[in-house]
Specification:
The complex is a heterodimer of chains A (about 375) and B (about 350). Chain A is α/β, with parallel strands linked by helices. Helix content of chain A is about 40%, strand content about 20%. Chain A has a six-stranded mixed β-sheet, with helices on both faces. A four-stranded parallel β-sheet of chain A has the order 8-7-9-10, sandwiched between helices. Chain A has a three-stranded antiparallel β-sheet with strand order 11-14-15. The longest helix of chain A has 21 residues. The termini of chain A are far apart. The model of chain A has no long low-confidence stretch (mean pLDDT about 90). Chain B has one domain: Orthogonal Bundle (ABC transporter involved in vitamin B12 uptake, BtuC), CATH 1.10.3470. In chain B, helix 2 runs parallel beside helix 7 and helix 9 crosses helix 11. Chain B is globular. Classes of the chains: A alpha/beta (about 375), B mainly alpha (about 350). The interface between A and B is medium-sized, with 32 and 34 residues.
Chain lengths: ~375, ~350
């Protein structure tokens, strides 16, 4: 009798728990991409815990910028925590590793990584994967545009020896070729390297007008410091992967004058008043700085916030079709995210289609330069 | 590829090679005396560099907590044994050395903001915080296992390495740091700029190597270490305690590691996990020396530094591959040319 009563109580309790929406998160809060992962992790504390009347649980795990750990995390999130959607990871290699597990378990995945390869070319696998960070193709177009405006003729590239650097090189090379820019050197270095002298010497020997550093986080300061030391006088471009204050701290005076494309959120205060993204960007910036201090906001946290924005718009739609914790809910959620239209977020305005799982356009990036250890909008 | 680039790459290679040479020497020293393959050597480099960076940023470095914790553990372990044996006379110096001095250091750091110290004083404080970790780690982890096989000691080394990396993340955070250079001088050599910092690193490494040479040749403790390296039982019969040898060589290893860390901190950004890769390249140098010969290990490490530098120019994507593949021909050559002597298990 007592056993039956306990079983009945437990059964009602467990259905109540299942009705919560579980969001699993894997970020790189330690390791070489920690400067990307820590603000992302901090942002999840700001996201709403109720969406569409349902309680939302965020389970945040750290994968230490290691693809093996990321795979372990997503397996744990799906099998133990029974999540309805996975957000992660902060880097491209980790997201690619997690993708297979998400697809096998029919769970939608929202990545915060930079490379377009996470969502392109669209195939049966990538149906389940979405991405909130601007594609490197968008950012590369902005860079090439700025270069041609400055009459740059020859460019050299030095980037990470992994999926991020390779992805950037491919995108950049495509667009540079179309705009008749000559790529005179292409070098790689590891995120953990302590010295890039050889690569820098090779790059400078080719005498390019501009150099693009295809790195992310604080390790991208190393080539720029080495270039400054060796007296390079041309233009230096960085990717949006360095848009945070730790990069400015480690780079110090040596990174002054670099140009880079960033999400509008990084310079939200400097945007013109009629810029379409200004309102939604400022919303995130004020919330983050209220909790973590003035000047602490970073563009990577914005990608996590945008994932939250996507879910806030998609979960109520999916709830109409199925209950959380079921396969039908995950399918409905995937569809709902895929049909997001004109949704303003911190970095841009989402317009997703079945072929474009990233959703941003030109409004999602601006060119900035580093001046006096801060980001300055280039008009 | 002109002379200037050749010289610049050579300069970079020799700077890195000098650091790897110091680490290779430390690894050979620890292995010959205690049969321990000291993988945490790289962690001392990272700890030395990051402790100095913390002091420069005006924060109390987390190393002081590790020092206190290990000191207390050593004091408890040895103190209990002394009390049981009734040797109370030795208790007081033990407690003062292991608990009193670290407490004093911690109190001093909290009382006075570290940024006010001049650079050389900050260097001395960093060394004083990191070097005692060596003998304490020996007492806590290796002394109970002193007679075990090389494999068991290696596993313990890996465990210590993992623990120190985790603690490094806790103390210093996930982001890296650089310290300002000791000197901003720059000379011209055959048309290529020669950094003052590079000369400092090479000169400091060379002086340390010469100092170690005189230590081993002329002082009683150095000769005691050499004796233990040659024959542990014989040395014990001659009155050299193996624990003294073990603690002394780990002190030296920690000192060399911390010193190398302080030397490279201005040149490159050090993260809490950078030490491992640097130590590993020193290990390649030590292998070239057969984990027995100091001069060959030092030269091997300089070769590793040069190889790394030149291959980063010619084939930057394969730099790590080339450097570590160097181990294979070296091991092949060594196994073919040396005679195999069966070691008696002690």
């Amino acid at each position: 009798m007592f056993k039956k009563l306990t079983l009945a109580v437990l059964a009602t309790l467990s259905t109540a728990v299942l009705a919560d929406v579980n969001v699993g998160v894997s970020v790189s809060a330690t390791g070489p991409a920690a400067s990307l992962g820590i603000p992302e992790k901090n942002t999840f504390a700001l996201l709403p815990t109720t969406i569409g009347g349902q309680k939302v649980n965020y389970i945040v795990l750290d994968d230490a910028t290691d693809p093996t750990a990321a795979t372990k995390n997503i397996k744990k999130l799906i099998s133990e925590n029974k999540v309805d959607v996975v957000i992660g990871s902060s880097t491209t290699p980790n997201s690619l590793a997690m993708m297979d597990v998400a697809v096998d378990n029919e769970t939608p995945m929202i990545s915060m990584a930079g490379s377009a390869i996470v969502v392109e070319p669209m195939d049966a696998k990538r149906q389940w994967v979405f991405k909130t960070a601007q594609n490197d193709a968008h950012m590369a177009t902005a860079i090439v545009q700025h270069m041609t405006d400055k009459n740059v003729q020859s460019v050299a590239f030095i980037g990470f020896a992994d999926a991020y650097g390779e992805g950037w090189y491919k995108e950049f090379a495509k667009i540079a070729e179309a705009r008749k820019l000559k790529i005179v050197a292409s070098e790689r270095y590891q995120r953990n390297d302590t010295s890039v002298t050889g690569q820098i010497l090779k790059v400078m020997a080719a005498k390019p007008d501009a150099i693009l550093i295809g790195g992310a986080g604080t390790p991208a300061a190393l080539p720029q410091k080495a270039l400054k030391e060796k007296g390079y006088k041309g233009l230096i471009y960085q990717t949006h992967g360095v848009a945070n204050n730790d990069f400015l701290r480690v780079g110090g005076k040596d990174v002054e004058g670099a140009f880079l494309p960033v999400g509008p959120m990084v310079v939200a205060n400097q945007l013109p008043a009629d810029y379409p993204v200004k309102k939604s960007a400022l919303e995130y910036v004020t919330k983050y700085e209220a909790m973590y201090g003035k000047g602490s906001v970073s563009s990577f946290g914005g990608h996590a916030w945008d994932a939250g924005v996507l879910l806030q718009s998609a979960i109520p739609v999916a709830l109409k079709k199925a209950k959380p914790g079921t396969v039908e809910f995950r399918h409905a959620l995937r569809e709902a995210i895929e049909n997001t239209k004109n949704l303003p977020a911190a970095h841009g305005i989402f317009n997703m289609t079945p072929n474009d799982h990233q959703g941003y356009d030109q409004r999602a990036r601006v060119m900035v330069t580093i001046e006096n250890n801060a980001w300055k909008l280039v008009k | 590829m002109d002379l200037q680039i050749l010289l610049l790459l050579g300069q970079d290679g020799i700077t890195n090679g000098a650091i790897y040479a110091l680490l290779a020497l430390a690894l050979v020293l620890v292995f010959t005396v205690t049969r321990v393959i000291f993988i945490p050597q790289g962690e001392f480099v990272a700890y030395g560099a990051l402790t100095l960076a913390s002091l420069q940023a005006g924060k109390v470095p987390g190393t002081v907590w590790l020092l206190l914790a290990l000191g207390t553990t050593v004091a408890v372990l040895d103190g209990v044994r002394l009390v049981r044996e009734g040797r109370f006379a030795k208790l007081t110096p033990l407690l003062i050395l292991n608990i009193g001095l670290p407490l004093l250091a911690a109190a001093g750091l909290f009382a006075m903001p570290p940024t006010q110290l001049p650079l050389w004083a900050q260097v001395v404080v960093s060394m004083l915080l990191v070097v005692p970790l060596g003998p304490m780690i020996y007492r806590v982890a290796y002394q109970p296992l002193a007679g075990a096989s090389v494999l068991v000691l290696l596993i313990v080394s890996v465990a210590i390495h993992v623990a120190l990396i985790g603690l490094g993340l806790l103390f210093f955070g996930a982001e890296g740091s650089r310290t300002p250079s000791f000197t901003d001088l720059s000379f011209e050599l055959a048309g290529a700029p020669l950094q003052g910092q590079t000369i400092l690193v090479v000169v400091a490494s060379a002086s340390l190597i010469i100092g170690l040479y005189f230590f081993f040749e002329r002082t009683i403790y150095g000769k005691a270490l050499r004796a233990t390296a040659m024959n542990r039982t014989g040395a014990r019969l001659m009155g050299i305690p193996p624990t003294l040898a073990g603690k002394l060589c780990l002190t030296l290893a920690a000192a060399i590691g911390a010193f190398s860390g302080i030397l490279i901190a201005p040149i490159t950004t050090i993260y809490y996990d950078s030490g491992f890769l640097i130590g590993l390249k020193g290990f390649v140098g030590a292998i070239i020396g057969g984990l027995a010969s100091y001069p060959v290990a030092a030269l091997g490490a300089v070769l590793v530094g040069l190889l790394e530098s030149y291959s980063s120019f010619y084939a930057s994507a394969f730099k790590e591959v080339i450097v570590f593949t160097l181990i294979i021909p070296v091991l092949l050559w060594r196994s073919l040319t040396s005679t195999h002597i069966e070691e008696e298990e002690e």
